[in-house]
Amino acid sequence: MDVTLVRHATLVVELDGTRFLVDPMLSEPGANPPVENTPRQRRNPLVGLPDVDLEHDAVLVTHRHTDHWDAWADAVDDDTPVFCNPAEADAFREDGLTDVRPVADAEAFDGVTVHRTPARHGHGETAEAMAPVCGFVLEGAETLYLAGDTVWYDPVPETIDAHDPDAVVVNAGAAQFVDGDPITMDAEDVRRVVGHADCPVVAVHMEAINHCLLERDDLREAVDEVSIPADGETVTL
After folding, report:
1. Secondary structure of residue 54 in the 3-state scheme
2. Which of 24, 146, 181, 185 would be a feasible disulfide site paired with 189, CB 3.0-4.6 Å?
3. What is the pLDDT of residue 11?
4. Residues 4, 12: contact at Cβ < 8 Å?
């Protein structure tokens, strides 16, 4: 399987000949205001889109925050199958999408099983405010765990144990508000995933949105044995 990092959490995953576009944030640099109440106030996205083939058969959306679902109409047709959290299905239909497929537990698509997995986007009251959010496991000839916007907590290793993935993609960046703990994985969380998973770990979700403070070089220095692709880079797993 191939995982191409477009930018931030936007991926193109090719598994068993089926292409999934994940969390399409496709706006131009500076099109959106900064995430508020964060240490670094710069307009988003911070960087442009690389020249990447966005052709896809279906879309996966872990949650509807602007940095995961923005300017989607530039690439996604209204009748494209969109797999999402059931709690957000109506909002996608209100966007004009006609083939919304909420994943209560698992859904089949073109020979691939899409499992919805739990995620916690921060800690305490912050996590409650950031909900709903989820991850996905794609199960075909090989299995890929897309953790989504989550910190390390018990369901992450439990998902790894239950699905025994061939690779894991984590959203790093240590996204941060002025107060409180990170709301996505920091270096220590990524280290825990690497230590628990008996497979390659790919870290994305860095250097594109103003509240993501952990940069690629810092993560490379802190964690061995993690793949950190550049925007536009394809990792074959």
Report:
1. coil
2. 185
3. 98
4. yes
